[in-house]
Amino acid sequence: MRALTLALRFARRELRGGVRGFGIFLACLTLGVAAIAAVGSVRAAIETGLAREGAALLGGDAEMEFTYRFASEAERAWMAETADRVSEIVDFRSMALVDHEGEAERALTQVKAVDTAYPLVGSVRLAPEMPLDQALAGQDGLPGGVMERVLSDRLGIAPGDRFRLGTQDFVLMATLFKEPDGAGAGFALGPRTLVATPALAQSGLLAPGTLYSTKYRLDLPPGSDLHQLAGAARHQFADTGMRWRDARNGAPGVKQFVDRLGAFLVLVGLSGLAVGGVGVSAAVRSYLAGKTAVIATLRTLGADRATIFLTYFLQIGVLALIGIGLGVTLGGLLPLLLGPLIGAELPVPAVFALYPRPLAEAALYGALTALIFTLWPLARTEEVRAATLLREALSGARLWPAPRYLIAIGAALALLITLAALFAGTWRLTLWTAGGIAVALLALALAAGLLRHLARRLGPLARGRPALRWALDAIGSRQEGARSVVLSLGLGLSVLSAVGQIDGNLRHAISGNLPEVAPSYFFVDIQKDQMPGFLARLQDDPGVHKVESAPMLRGVITRINGRPAREVAGDHWVVRGDRGITYAAAPGANTRITAGQWWPSDYAGAPQISFAAEEAAELGLQLGDQMTVNILGRDITATITSFREVDFSTAGMGFVLTMNPAALSGAPHSFIATVYADPEAEAAILRDLAGQFPNITAIRVRDAIDRVAEVLSGISAATRWGAGISLVTGFLVLIGAAAAGVGARTYEAAILKTLGAARLRILLSFALRSAILGGAAGLVALATGLGAAWAITQQVLDTDFTVIWPSALLVVAGGILATLLAGLLFAWRPLAARPAQTLRARE
User: Fold this and answer.
1) In this protein, which residues make up the domain named ABC3 transporter permease C-terminal (predicted)?
2) What pTM does this model have?
C-alpha cells in the first residue's frame, strides 16, 4: 500500500511536466480505438434501424412464403383467421421487351405482382406522383406497370410507352423510386417491375412448374405474440414447405451481411490497434530510456522496484485512458455527425445515436492492447540495478521480463482474443486474424534482426560508397530503431497487402476466370413441350458450342433422418430456403460418383437421392440417410444412395440434390438450360428464342457477374478503408520513430560534417537508410500479406488464389515511399545544425 501511495505521488508530479514524447502513443491508441468504435456504432445504428423498421422492411408484421405455388385453402383460412389484413405478392424473374419500330429491346427484370392491399406498411413513391392502384390500373385498355429508372432507361422508354412481359402488353405509368419492402427482398439480378397480379393471367408467366414464389404479408392485431404465432404456423404447416418471417427480423439477409462485414472490419481494426501497439511499445521504451536519471535518483533514495514500476505504470495508464477516451469520443461522434451522409448511402434504415456497447467494446480493446504492449518494456526496468541505470541501461537489460509479467501479458492477450471472438461472433475468423497478426509480427521481428545483421556484415563491403556505408552502419546500430520501423510499417502494409490480394482474387474469381468457361446464358422456365423447339434452334447454330439442359424444381429440405433439418445441419446454406432440384435417369458424362451407386436407368422403386459430396460432408450425411424434401407442398422422403462431385465454380449447371425420375417426373416443373456460344452469336440467340417462347427468361452470365461485382465493390471499399487505418497508424509510428532518432542523426551529421562530408551526401545517406528499411518492411509485408490472403481465400472463402502483382508491387513501393517521406521530413534539422554547437552539447 505504501508503494502504491508513493507511486501515485511520483506519477502525479511527473505528469505535471506534460506528456512530451507521448504524441505518437496517444495518436496510435486514439486512431485504433476510434476506428473500432466508429465501425461498431454504424453497425449498431443499422441493427437498430432494422429492428425498429422490421415491419416496414418486411412489408407487414409477418410473412408466409411458398415456392412454385399459391397458398392452399387451409393456409388462406388460417391467415384470414389470424390477421386483420392479408396481402398476396408473386415474385419472379422475367424478360421485359420493348418494340422500337421492329427492333426488339430486352432486359432482365425482377417482377413483383401485387394485389390491391399492397403495401400493408409504408408507401410506394412514384414519379410522376400517383397512387399505386391508379398506376397499375393502366390506360387505353392495357394494364399498367411501374419500373425502376435504370430499367426504363435501359429499355429506352418513358411513362406512356408500352412494354411486354411474356405475352401480355403493359403501359408504363410511372417510374418506381421507393419500394417500402425493397431492402428486405434480398439480392436481385434485375431491376424491379411492379404489376397487378390479375394482369398476369394471360401472360403465360405463371404456368405450372415455372420459377416463382408467393409471399403473404400479414397485418396482425395489436399485441400479437410473434413468437407464438411463428411456432403455431410452423407446427401446423410443417410439411407444406412454408417459410415464415416476421418483423423481429424483417431483413435477415441484410442483418447477416451487416453482422459479418462489421465483424470483419472490427478485426481489421484490431490489426490497426496491433500496429499502434508497436508504436506504443516504442514510445514507452523511448520515454523510459529518457527517465534513467530520474529512476536512478529514486533508487538511490530507497525506492524499491515495485514503487518504480507502479510509478511509470500509473503514468502510462493515465495516458492510455486519455488516448482511449479520445478514441471513444471520436468514434462515437463521427458517425453521429456524419449520420445524414452515411444514411443517404445505405439501402436500409439506420438510427444514428451514441450506443454504449460498441464504445465499451472499443475501450476494452484499447485498454487490453495498451496493457499488452506496455507491460513488456515497463517490466524490463525491474531487471536493471540502480548502479547500472545509465543512458543505455534499458537496452542492456535482459530481453525477457520476469515470468509473472509474461503470464500477465499472455492472460491479457487471451482475454483480448476471447472478447474479439465473442463480440465479432466468429471464432474461426478471429483466430485466423490473431494467428495472422502473430505470424506477421514474428516474421517482421526476425526480418528486422536479419536486416541489422546483414547491414553490419555488408557495411565494410561498401567502401568507396560513403553514403551507402553510412546508411548500412546506421541500420546495423542499436540506435537507428530498425525494428520499430520494420514492425510498425510492415504490419500496416501486411494488412493492406492481404486485403488487396483477397479483393483482387475475389474479383478475379467473379469476373476474370468465369467468362472463359462459363455459359453465355441461363434460360429458365422452359416448358417441357417447348424443349424440342428450343433445342432445334440451337443445335444447328455454328456459334453455339454446347447446350446443357435439365428438369428444374425447387424444394425445401425439411427433415434429415426424421429430425428437423435445421437441428441436424444448423444454418448451412443447403437447408436455408429452397434449393434447386433435378432428376436424371443416368449420371452426366462428366459426373464422378465418389461413394455409393447410381440407380438403374429404369428404376421405379422408392425415391433415391444423389447428393453433392462436399456439402454432404459438411452436413455429416452418410449413405443410407433419409432426407425429406417438400416440393409444391408435398413431402417426398428419399434415401441417399450416392455422393458425387459438383463444381459450382464454373457457373455451369450444378445441383446439390438429384433424384430418380420416377420420384419427380409427375410433378409440374419446367426445364433450365445453359448455352455456351460465341459473343457475336448471343444477340441472335436471345432474339430468336425470346420471340418464339416469350415466357422463357434469359439471364446473361456477364450481367450477373457485373451485378455481383458491383456489390463486391462496396465491400472492398469498406475493407480498404479499414486497412487504410492500419496503414495510417503504421505511418504515425514511423514518424514517431523518425522523430525519436533526430538527436542521434543530428550528432551523426555533425561528426560527418566535421570530417568534411557534404550535406548532399549526408542527405543521400539518410535517404538510402530509409529506402532500405522501407523496402525490407514492404518485402516482408508482401510475404506475410500473401500468406494471409492465401489462407483466407483457400480456407475461408474456398476459392483459388493467384498473386495480384500490381497490388503486390504497390505494397513494396508504398513501404519505400513512406519511409523516405518520414525520414526526409526529419532530415532537415540534423542537416541544418551547426557541428560545433552539437558536439559541445554532447560533452
Assistant:
1) 268-380, 724-830
2) 0.70
